Automatic annotation (TrEMBL):
Protein name: Uncharacterized protein (TIGR00255 family)
Residue stretches making up the Endoribonuclease YicC-like N-terminal domain: 2-155
Record's keyword terms, sorted: Endonuclease, Hydrolase, Nuclease
Organism phylogeny: Bacteria, Pseudomonadati, Bacteroidota, Bacteroidia, Bacteroidales
Cofactor(s) demanded: a divalent metal cation
Family the entry assigns: Belongs to the YicC/YloC family.
Molecular-function annotations in GO: hydrolase activity; RNA endonuclease activity
Endoribonuclease YicC-like C-terminal domain segment(s): 175-289
Amino acid sequence: MIQSMTGFGKVTAELPSKKVTVEVKALNSKQLDLSTRIPGIYKDKEMAVRSLLLQEVERGKVDFSIFIEYIGKDTPTQINLAAIESYYNQIKDVSEKLNIPVPADWFTTLLRLPEAIKSDIAEVDESEWELVMKTIKEAIKHLKEFRLQEGAMLQKLFEQKIGNIASLLDRIGEFDAERIEKIKTRISESIAKLNGVEIDNNRFEQEMIYYIEKLDVNEEKNRLDNHLKYFISTMNNGHGQGKKLGFIAQEIGREINTLGSKSNHAEMQQIVVQMKDELEQIKEQVLNVL
């Protein structure tokens, strides 16, 4: 079964002094485009996290985040009183010297300045990191389960659209013989209107056969049928088939276009337009396949 590149996973772990929440989101992308947001306390573990994501997520635009919520009064983040007092005095001096109004909201202004907040980052013990890593793996598992669910819906859509194209292809056969006869009749009637022109019937018959062969669409119909079956079998081979399905969709499009250019028949051209509409929906959604 195919998987979607779109997915979401979120898991929260409770430690004695804090809650750690891991979120991983994925959207479609040609390659793996990985963005991580990791608190300073776990920064030295970032390479291990990225390595795990590279291995498990495979492809897509991935946003990975770890959030920490401290429980109780103890927190490693504190207001830097000395820095804020210095900023406060400097701003007042500048205000007086340049005749500029002081800020209306002192706290908002001062807390946004560099070094206004200081963080005492302690080393993470192995038992805490094992729990965090377990939480990360669980969030990735949820992401992959989400991708499977989305993939199942995409697979149903593709099966429906491929089936629709196959049904339309069968309808083309209904008009093929009628189309050839109409073309023969139209050419014969045009020749008959050429008064005083001597026609070599043998040569005319040869040219007619050559022209009809050029308009024959049996090869295109067979190739299109094979591409449709190949799309389904590739889809059933498992995940990681997104790029391949995209290539097959392009080949399907080429055969449909050739059918349209060779049909020379109103009803057949209408069917080709319907085929193109079904294929366009496939192409649009195949970009989301992992």
